[in-house]
Specification:
The chain has about 150 residues and is α+β, with helices and mostly antiparallel strands. The protein has a single domain (about 5-140), classed as Aldehyde Oxidoreductase, domain 3 (Alpha-Beta Complex), CATH 3.90.1170.40. The protein is about 30% helix and about 40% strand. The chain has helices at about 5-10, 25-30, 65-80, 110-125; strands at about 10-15, 35-45, 50, 50-60, 85-90, 90-95, 100-105, 130-135, 140-145. The strands form 2 sheets. Strands 3, 4, 6, 8 and 9 form a 5-stranded antiparallel β-sheet that branches. Strands 1-5-7-2 form a 4-stranded mixed β-sheet, sandwiched between helices. Strand 3 (about 50) and strand 4 (about 50-60) form a beta hairpin. Helix 3 (about 65-80) runs antiparallel to helix 4 (about 110-125). The protein is elongated, with a radius of gyration of 16 Å. The N and C termini lie far apart (about 45 Å). GO terms for molecular function: transferase activity. Its EC number is 2.-.-.-. This is Molybdopterin synthase catalytic subunit 2. It comes from Nostocoides australiense Ben110. Keywords: Transferase.
Length: about 150
């Protein structure tokens, strides 16, 4: 009989979506009665960047972005004492206040949950090829995160 793959069983939600993201769905994905620590990060579109007014954002993902996000989730699951990992990133046009990214982890203890949660969002931002096109109040725009 094949043994379950702990790392893949731990990654409960990993997606890139053009639809609005749900914090409730991320929390449901990491639900585990054996976990006393849950850490959730919610990244929202803010109305400024470096003292410039931002009016909207557009996110675009490379065709390999989901595979990159899956690698990040698996690496966090493999290197931390966590029982559940979730990560979702939005693409398309977003308005100020919209949720752009949600990461969540569940661990038996808070220290592991905090460490894993921090690594999950940091590695997602550093290695997943999703690019942000910021639209500024003065009519200019800028791409962020391009290689």
């Amino acid at each position: 009989m094949a043994q379950p793959d702990r790392v893949h069983d731990v990654v409960r939600l990993c997606a890139i979506s053009a639809e609005p993201l749900s914090v409730d769905a991320a929390l449901a994905a990491i639900a585990d009665d054996g976990c006393g620590g849950q850490v959730v990060f919610i990244g929202r579109v803010r109305d400024h960047d470096h003292a410039r007014a931002v009016t909207a954002l557009e996110y675009e993902a490379h065709p390999g972005a989901l595979a990159a996000l899956q690698r990040v989730c698996r690496a966090v699951a493999d290197t931390h004492d966590v029982r559940a990992v979730a990560a979702v990133h939005r693409v398309g046009a977003l308005a100020i206040g919209d949720i752009a990214v949600i990461t969540a982890v569940a661990a038996p203890h808070r220290d592991a949950a905090f460490a894993a949660g921090r690594e999950l969002i940091d590695q997602l931002k550093a290695t997943t090829p999703i690019w942000k096109h910021q639209l500024f109040g003065d009519g200019e725009s800028e791409w962020v995160g391009l290689p």
